[in-house]
Amino acid sequence: MVEKMGKLRRTHMCGELRSSNIGEEVVLMGWVQKKRNLGSLIFADLRDTMGIAQIVFDDTISEDLFKKAEKVKGEYVIAIKGKVRERESINPSIPTGEIEIIADELKILNESETPPIYIKDNDDVADNMRLKYRYLDLRKPSIQNNLKVRHRTSKIIREFLDENNFVEIETPMLTKPTPEGARDYLVPSRINAGKFYALPQSPQLMKQLLMVAGMDRYYQIVKCFRDEDLRANRQPEFTQVDIEMSFVDIEDIIEINEKLLYKIFKEIKGVEIELPIKRMTYNEAMERFGSDKPDLRFGFELKDITDIVANSDFKVFSGTIKNNGEVRGINIKGHESNFSRKDISKLESYIKDFGAKGLAWIKITEEGISSPIAKFLKEEELEKIIERMDGNKGDLLLFVADKSKVVFDSLGNLRVEVARRLDIIEKDDLKLVWITEFPLFEYDEEKERYVAKHHPFTHPMEEDIHLLETRPQDVRAKAYDIVINGDEMGGGSIRISDSKLQERMFKALGLQEEEVKDKFGFLLEAFKYGTPPHGGIAYGFDRLVMLLTDTNNIRDVIAFPKTQSATCLLTGAPTYIDSEQLKEVHMKLDLEK
Amino acid sequence: MVEKMGKLRRTHMCGELRSSNIGEEVVLMGWVQKKRNLGSLIFADLRDTMGIAQIVFDDTISEDLFKKAEKVKGEYVIAIKGKVRERESINPSIPTGEIEIIADELKILNESETPPIYIKDNDDVADNMRLKYRYLDLRKPSIQNNLKVRHRTSKIIREFLDENNFVEIETPMLTKPTPEGARDYLVPSRINAGKFYALPQSPQLMKQLLMVAGMDRYYQIVKCFRDEDLRANRQPEFTQVDIEMSFVDIEDIIEINEKLLYKIFKEIKGVEIELPIKRMTYNEAMERFGSDKPDLRFGFELKDITDIVANSDFKVFSGTIKNNGEVRGINIKGHESNFSRKDISKLESYIKDFGAKGLAWIKITEEGISSPIAKFLKEEELEKIIERMDGNKGDLLLFVADKSKVVFDSLGNLRVEVARRLDIIEKDDLKLVWITEFPLFEYDEEKERYVAKHHPFTHPMEEDIHLLETRPQDVRAKAYDIVINGDEMGGGSIRISDSKLQERMFKALGLQEEEVKDKFGFLLEAFKYGTPPHGGIAYGFDRLVMLLTDTNNIRDVIAFPKTQSATCLLTGAPTYIDSEQLKEVHMKLDLEK
C-alpha cells in the first residue's frame, strides 16, 4: 500500500544531520538501505543523495505505526518525522554517526521488489547488469559522487571562462557531413529527400566562424559524436569543452588555459599545480618517451643505440638498421629481479600488438650480464650499450629494433605497461605537460599522401612556412596538447586566418580545388571578409572527470553510457523501427543476407 | 599584404575606453566599421564585440604608416597602438564618444572584400542573405547582444539551480525512438545493422530515471529535436531548460520556479515580477481567453451568448447551437471606429484559418446599432446580447458560432490579432500566469481514442483519479504551464510514481500490454524498485531568450539557425552523401520518381 506525502515536507537531507541538530524535529525522505528488527526496536538506515541517517522505531509509537515499520524492506521509499537524538553507540565511520532519529511518523511512499543488484560501492556485479539496471547502479554513492564532481567541474570551467569574457554559444547538432576525419553519425532529412545531416564530430568550423563573426571569445561544453569502433573508454557520444579566442597566439592560449587548469585542480582536488606547466616538443616526447602523450610520473626513458649496433654481427639489429630501421631501448632501473624470463616473454607478446617482432633484453645481475643476445655482441658494443643505457647492477634493459614508428609505439607503451605491472605509480602524483611543435602533416599510407595531423586549418610555425611545398614532413604546427599522467586531456592550435596561406596548405595536402570548394567552400568564403588571428583548444571532458574522480572506466562518469557495441542496455537503443518511419525519410534497409 | 600581430597584444577592448583613460597608451584590435580620409587626417571607427572607438591617423606618423592607413577599408582587421586623448567634437550617441586614439602604430591583420551585407543593425537585407553570410550578420551589435543575453540567462539559471542543490546531468543524444508524440530524427546504427537511434524530443524518461536513481534534483540545459514541418519560430533543434525534483508536489515545484523566474527577470530586465505569480485553471483560461496560453496584457475577453440565441430566428446562431455548437463573442471596447467593414472582413478571413465559417459583428455607434445581423435578432435578444457583452457606445462586438474548439481557437487568436492591429500592447508590459488543472486526456479524432495531453506519465489530480475509467474526459492533471504575454514558456507536471496507477493510466489510454512493454517496459521495470514522488518542468529556452531580448524572430537568438525547410544556408546542410557512406549504415535511398 503506497501512501502520499500529503502535507509532509522534507526539512533536512539524511546525510547532513550532525550532533548540532540534536533535539530538532526533522522530516527525512529517502530509500531504506537496511533494516534490523530487534523485536521491540527497529533500526533503519535511510539513504538519500547526501548520505545515510539511522532511524529508530520503538514502542513509544502506535502499534499500527510500528507494524508499518515492520513491513518496510530494502529500497522502500519512506518519509519519517522524528526527533534527532544522540546515538548510544557512535559510528565514527559515517558523518551522521553521532546521531539517530527517533521516529514518530512514517509513510511508505513506495515499495520495492528485491533489487537485482546491491546498492553499495564496489559491488562486483557484472557490467551488463550494472548497465541494464543503471537507475539502481546510480544509487551507489560513488557513482553519484562522480556525477556531482562532473557537475562541479563544468561549473568551475564556466565560472572561469565567464569571468574572462568568454561567451557560451550553442552550435548546431544537425550539421554538414564532413568527408574527412572520423566517420559521421548521419541523420536523414525528411523535408530534403535524399539528403543528410551529420552529428558534429566537433564544432571546429562553427567556432572558427564565430571568430570571423567577431564574437572574440567563445566556449561551449558540448556533445560531440564519432561513429568509430569503440575501444575501452570510448563512447559514441562524448563531451567536449570547446574554446576559441581571437587576436591571440600560442602563448596567450596556453597562459589562460594554465589558469583554468590550476583552478580546476585547486577546487576539485585541493592540489595547486605548478605554473607554468612544463613544456616538451613533440620530438623530445617521442625520443624520450616514445609517445606524444608521455606519462612523466616515472622514468624508463628511451635511449637510441642505433649508432652503436649499426654494424653489429647481431643481424637482428644491424639488418633492421640497414633496412631503414633503428634500435632503441629502455632501462627498467633496479627491477631486473622482478622479471623472470617468463615475465619478459609476456612483455614481448604485449608489444607484438604494436607491431614489434621481438623484445631483446639484457639483465645486469649480481652475477654479471644475463642476456640471450649478449653472445652476438662484441664486448665493446655491449659496453657501449650499457653505458648509453646507464646500466647498473639490478637493471633490466629492453630493446626493440624496427621501423621508427614501431619502435616508438612498442617502447612507449611498454614503459607504461611495465610501470603498471610494477605498481610504482603514486596514486596522487600529477604530472602535466604541454606537448608542442607537432608535425603539421603525417603521411597516410592508405591515401598515399600527406594528411593534416590535427586538421587542415592548423597554422604552421612561422619559421617553417617556407618548407610547405618542399619539405612538408619537416613543417611544424602551432599546435599544442595538454597531457596529464600520460593521457591527452586536450589539444588545440592557432588557426590559419590568411586565405593565401590556407590555399598553400590545401595544395600541400594534395586537395583539388573542386574538392576544397565542396568541403570547405563556406569557410573559405567567410575568410574573405576580415578574419582575425585566432586559435583555441578542446578538452575531453569525460576524460578530465575520470582523472578528477580517480576512475579508470569512462562509464563511471556518464549517467547513461553505452556498451562497446554502442547499445544502451537500459532502454534497448538502438531499436528496429517501422518501415513507415523509414519511408518518411526516403530510406530503406540495405541488409546483407 | 597581411601582417602578423608579432609581440603586439591588445590592452583594451574598443568599447570600454572612457575619458578616464585619457593619456593612456593602448593597443586595440578589431574591424574597421568606417573610414574617412580628410587628406592630412584619417579617421577610422574601430569595432570589436564591446563597441566602437575612433582612431585618428595624422602627420605625426611616418609617411609609410600613413599610406598604410590609407589602404585600410571597411571590415579590414587591424591592430593599432596609440594614446587616448579627448575628442574635439564629442559624440554623445556612443559610450566612447568623449575620446579618440591618436595612432602611432598600425598593423593590417587581415583584409576584407566588400561584404555582401552591411554590418549595421536593422539593415533590411533579405533573410536568406543574412543566413548565408551569417558570420557577417553576427557582427551586428544587436545579434551579438542577443547571444550575450542568452549566455547570461543560462548562467543565471545555472547559478540559481546550483545554489538549490540541483545537479546538471547530461543525458544521451543517441536514444531510443519514441513511437508516440512528434516525429523523431533518426540515426541509423552501423554496428547494429538495421537498427536506429533517435535524437531526443526531450530527456523526459531519462530525467524520471534519474529520480528513480535517487539523484534528487536534476537539471540540464539541453538540445532537443523534433522533425516537424516548421512553422515560424520553430527550429528542428531547440534548447530546453529541463528540471526534475524528487519528494515534491505541485506547490514545491511552482514555488522554486517562481524564484527562478524572479531572478531571471530581475537580473536580465531589471524588472521585479510580482510573486506569487497569478494562477488560472485551464477551464477559466479557455472560457475567458479562448486559449490555454492567454495574453493578459489586454482585455477583449470571451463571453458566452449561447443561452441567449439558442432559439433565435437567426439560424446561423440557433442552427449551430442545435448542432452541438455554441456562440461566443468578444468586445473590442471603444474601438468600433477603428474598424471599417473592410477591416472586419479582413478579420473574418483571418479567423477562417482556425476553421471559423464567418464573423458576426455589432457596432454600437453614436448613431445606434450598426450590424448586418441585427435585423435577424429580436429586440430582446439584441438587448440581452449587448448587456452580456457589456456593450457601450464606441464598442465593436465580434461573434463566432461553431463547435467549441473552433469558437475558442478563432476568438482566442482574434483577440490577439485585434490587439496587435490596434497596437495597444505596451512594450514593457509583462504578464505571467500559471495555467493549472489541464485535462489529463484529449480525444484524438484520427486515432479514435484518448491520448495523453502532456505525456502518459502525468499524474491525475487526486480528487479525479476515481474518474479514470468512467469519465476520462473529466480527469484533470497535476500539470502546469507558465505563460508569459501569451507565450507558453514552460510546462511540467507531477509524474505518476505508483505503478498500479500507471497501469490504470495506460489502460485508460487504450494501450495494449504488449505495446506498453515495448515502448515503456524499461521505465515500468524501473518503477518496481522504489520510485520517489517526483515532478518537474521544462522551459523553451529559445523562446525565453526571445522574450528577454524583445525579439520576434527565433533566428535572432540562435547563432546558426536553419530555414523553414530545415536547411543551413551557410554550410549547405543537409547534403547528399556517398552511397558508400550509406552502405556502411546498411541503408539505401528510397526516392519517389
Automatic annotation (TrEMBL), chains A, B:
GO molecular function: aspartate-tRNA ligase activity; ATP binding; catalytic activity, acting on a protein; nucleic acid binding; transferase activity
Biological processes, Gene Ontology terms: aspartyl-tRNA aminoacylation
Reaction(s) the record says it catalyses: tRNA(Asp) + L-aspartate + ATP = L-aspartyl-tRNA(Asp) + AMP + diphosphate
Sequence ranges assigned to domain Aminoacyl-transfer RNA synthetases class-II family profile in this UniProt record: 147-561
Annotated segments matching region Aspartate: 204-207
UniProt entry keywords in alphabetical sequence: Aminoacyl-tRNA synthetase, ATP-binding, Cytoplasm, Ligase, Nucleotide-binding, Protein biosynthesis
EC number from the UniProt entry: 6.1.1.12
Gene Ontology cellular component annotations, sorted alphabetically: cytoplasm
Protein family: Belongs to the class-II aminoacyl-tRNA synthetase family. Type 1 subfamily.
Name the UniProt record assigns to this protein: Aspartate--tRNA ligase
Chain's gene name: aspS
